[in-house]
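Support case: user asked for a sample of complex input and structure output to validate their parser. Sending the pair below.
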Amino acid sequence: MSRFVDLTLSTVLLTGLYATMAYGLGLIYGVLRVVNLAHGGVIMTGAYLGWILYVRLGIDPYLTIPIVGAICFGLGVAMYSGLVRWLPRGAAGGPASLLLLFGVWLVLRNVAYGLFTGNDQAILTSYSTRSVAVLGLHVPLTRLVVLGIGLAIAALLHLLLRRTLVGRAIRAVAQNADSCTLVGIDVNRIYMLTFGIGTALSGIAGVLLATVFPFNPNAGAPELLKSFVVVVLGGLGSVWGIALAALVLAAAETYAVLIMPSYLTAAVGFVLLVLVLVLRPGGFFGHRILA
Amino acid sequence: MTPPPLLPRRMAGAFALGCAVLAVLPALDLSPYAHNQLTLSYVMIAGALAWNWMGGFVGQVSFGHAAMFGVGAFVAGRLMLDGLPAPLCWLAGGAVAGLFTLPVHPTLRLRGPYFSIATIGIGEVSRVVFTYWEGFTGGATGLSLPVTAVQKYQLYWWALALAAMVALASIVIRRSSFGLRLLAIKADVDAAADVGISAALYQDVMFALSGAVIGVSGGIFASYFVFIEPGDMFGFDRSIAFVLMAVIGGVGTSLGPALGAVVFVVLRTQLLASYPELHLGLYGVLVIVIILFQPLGITGLLGSLARALARRMQRRIFGRPRRTPPPAPGEA
């Protein structure tokens, strides 16, 4: 029984991280129809940025989030206006955009190697090992904070997309870019902004990841896969659909230890992806685009 | 009207001549370094061309071909340890690697980014599973294969034969009506379905064929390196290598990836020797530049160079093209 409670708790605590990871990928895919293959690389970059700000400047890792977000926003804007913008759209642009962003990933990986070597790093603060009692259980403090920040980000993103003019423009462009040009929305600018926001979210996810797990320049492939699973599972319907999908993935991964050796949990996300694509190609929670 | 021949006589002749020259090279006092680079290039040429069958001909970019590479290598390795003759082991490895794609693929039949990311999953899952399956792969300690120095030297010709066969197959596929159907699928799945081409079926067939060839090249690669270890053979970097070779050489061209493989092997050796910390990033920059400016890689570059040269020659022989009226006689 206590094991069951433990696993449920781990599930809930993982959800915030997975959801934040998936928003970055999902937003860009939903609006630009481009899968950001550099997503894993940006997460890794965010982790290193948070780490270096903490180690060198002594800023609390959770306070680095706005800084890392801003830097990654700039990175995303640069990636869009320097690279992605010049690709053909539609079917012809598919493999090209994948390969292009894959190139960006390799560059990010190499830069991290060059600057920080291939060693594992982790953000260790004075409170990293502290835990708080929740319902009589010891919960690691960092994990709880990550969950809280994940929820806050989901709420902010929801507000941005639903309540602001920019958010409305983003949703409109996602639905029909040509009509947007007709009513005077600068589609290219919205694409650039969306790519920036998406990349910023990936970077923030990186900081969150770094406060909970160790990382190195090779990190990224499993994160990309997991984010994609969540996006496919949740569809591009809403911010909360993705949060729910993140919960499903976290639950599947956590409870998997009951029936299989722990090293195989890496396969859970992949199996889930296959199942979803076979059963419900549109995602389980609707596939309207962030509407 | 008869269709054009699958392999025009002149092309076949040039191809045979090229292979013959390469086959007698070792007799001409080739340095061990060149011998090594060429052998490795042949193995990688086969792999890159096979990746291109999927990534270039069908347009399905795979980031998980290391799975088939590893399966081929370890099946071949196990059989060699059981004392079977090496070529038989490689073929068996290739067959198993080809079959390995089947249970994965029909359940997916994905397109575009869905396929690509699912292949990352295939790669990661196989790496984990085979690393922990110690009875088969030897786990983290790996396998040492019974290959003598003489056999290793002879791998040059085996690898060359494989590369030649795969190159020939690439040309034939590209020029056949089968290849045209693949091109139709790549251009527009729905339109292809409308004229009766089953994208799913062709995709399965090409994935299996591509996997089988990669498996055979994995087996030869394993024999050449004698020692293999699942973390490396199934690693993400191996999958990446196939993508890079094809992109550098020219995705979708029939023989471009072969050029890419040679460049990749030589560049890799040079970079790992002098700037080990730079080699991935350099490929990344290369990929970005290629996709933005010359999507057909080296092949495209050579093509435009050849065209420019031809224009120049034409100008030399026939004078400037008459866009402006010729100068009046006596003026010059």
